[in-house]
What we know:
The protein is built from 4 helices and 2 strands, in the order E-E-H-H-H-H.
Amino acid sequence: MTVRGRTVTTDRLDQPRALRPSLRPHYDPETFGRLSERIARFLGTARFLVYMTVFVSVWVIWNVVVPPNLKFDPYPFIFLTLMLSLQASYAAPLILLAQNRQSDRDRIQYEADREAAERNQAEIEYLTREIAGLRLALSEVATRDYLRAELSRLLEELTERR
Length: 162
């Protein structure tokens, strides 16, 4: 469209917008969430504890035993502390993200279970009403004992008349 000699582009509402370049990195939240769950699951295993124990032990032993020119982190192991702090600063949010995803799954499962319980309750109430109806109907139906008693009474009446 041209207005006063200039070309003006207007966004049409019936067409999708063109993607704008962004400086933010693009990531798939679902993929990132699955990755964070895998990492959080690994952080909670005995294997991780063994690996970390071996890593820290080798680090400390190396920096205590080897000659001074080969030490890369002498006592008080400032670089080791920095590495462990960095690992913890990444582990905590990943664990929280995994917990949030698990709570979302639990909420969905709870809602599905609640709906199933409501359906089951409705079915139980229906069956209870049906059984009550059958009991009422059976109370009006002659039972075998009642028929035997009536036939015996009729037989006695017939024998008395003869």
